[in-house]
Amino acid sequence: MSIPIILLAAGQSRRMGGADKLLQEVDGRPLLRRSAEIARSVAPVIVALPPAPHPRHDALSGLDVLGVPIADAQEGMNASLRGAVRALPQDAQAVMILLADLPDLTAEDLTTVMRAVRDVPDNLIWRGATEDGKPGHPVVFHRDLFPDLAKLTGDGGAQTLVRRHAGRVHLVPLPGQHARTDLDTPDDWNRWRSGRERLRES
């Protein structure tokens, strides 16, 4: 199946005290570039970005991804979804929505969720979950939901669609808390880095 990935990276990092969470360094490169590289190893990637000029564009320099500037990004996540969905290829059978600030997700995790679309086809939504079953990311939407994604407004993401089609959502367990570890604040980053350092030392 043709399932491109939309990487949402147009948000304003309002809770980071002036820093840009997507430009924080992880494994020697900005988190945004790392997330895009992981996604690109799995499927074609569309990245929703703030309008240029912006350092996030520079962070993706040289990568084979399609950047889509979101003029109304201040509205919230759904402006990014609308803009990126309009850039989907005509033959896309589904789309994976991926947040750029999930540092524990791996290419294998994304592939696991993609595989569920093929293996458990009688659904509209396939969603990564923690190993104990809490829903998280990434989320794949069947092409039948593209028109609804293109009409979302506000900052609630696609949760209204997930709730509306709750009976046709398939959860895909991923290792640990990969599906839910997002880094929105300096405290989040400090805790995550400390935990990672402890794992390296153990």
UniProtKB/TrEMBL annotation:
<dbReference type="Pfam" id="PF12804">
    <property type="entry name" value="NTP_transf_3"/>
</dbReference>
<feature type="domain" description="MobA-like NTP transferase">
    <location>
        <begin position="6"/>
        <end position="165"/>
    </location>
</feature>
<protein>
    <submittedName>
        <fullName>Nucleotidyltransferase family protein</fullName>
    </submittedName>
</protein>
<dbReference type="InterPro" id="IPR029044">
    <property type="entry name" value="Nucleotide-diphossugar_trans"/>
</dbReference>
<keyword id="KW-0460">Magnesium</keyword>
<dbReference type="InterPro" id="IPR025877">
    <property type="entry name" value="MobA-like_NTP_Trfase"/>
</dbReference>
